[in-house]
Amino acid sequence: MKTQEGIYNQHAENSDWMSKLKFYNDEISVLKNRLGEIASKNTDKEVLAQVEHFQNQLIIQKNNTDEISHLVKMNEETLQNEIKSNPTAVDHRKVEYHAKEKEAVETFEKNFNEIRNEFKLFASKWM
């Protein structure tokens, strides 16, 4: 049995996720700048290896935000098409819950927070 949810509730959740993803993209930019500062002040091979590690992780996380944003936008498009096809009683109608998108956002947040915490420890040691 597939879970159902109101169209407006799902739209609100999509909007919230898009705001979160924008915030994470901003955070990635900040972390990249801090990483650049660390790299410019430290030439030790161990430090540079860690800088490269975090650069790669931030690239991956940026790609993840792009992919998740695409998923959420596609879900939002599905909601809009549902409304266009039958605009009657939109506030009472339900659609299949966007579990795939929710799982993607939650997994991303968990992974990003782990990377951010690891980065903070690294930065506190070398800044």
Short description:
By secondary structure, the chain is mainly alpha-helical. The protein contains three helices and two strands, in the order βααβα.
Report the count of strand segments: 2
Largest sheet properties: 2 strands, antiparallel
Q: Given the C-alpha coordinates, what overall shape results?
A: rod-shaped
User: Given the helix and strand composition, which structural class is it?
Assistant: mainly alpha
> How many DSSP H or I helices?
3
What does this structure look like?
With 127 residues, the protein is mainly alpha-helical. The protein contains three helices and two strands; from the N terminus they run E-H-H-E-H. A two-stranded antiparallel sheet has the order 1-2. Helix 1 (7-41) packs antiparallel against helix 2, helix 1 (7-41) runs parallel beside helix 3 (99-126) and helix 2 (45-85) runs antiparallel to helix 3 (99-126). The mean pLDDT is 94.
Question: Which helices and strands occur, and which strands form pairs?
Answer:
Blueprint (H helix, E strand, L loop, with lengths): L3 E3 H35 L3 H41 L8 E3 L2 H28 L1
Antiparallel strand pairs: 1-2
Helix pairs in contact: 1-2, 1-3, 2-3
List keywords for this structure.
single chain, 127 residues, mainly alpha, two-stranded antiparallel sheet, 2 strands, 5% strand, rod-shaped
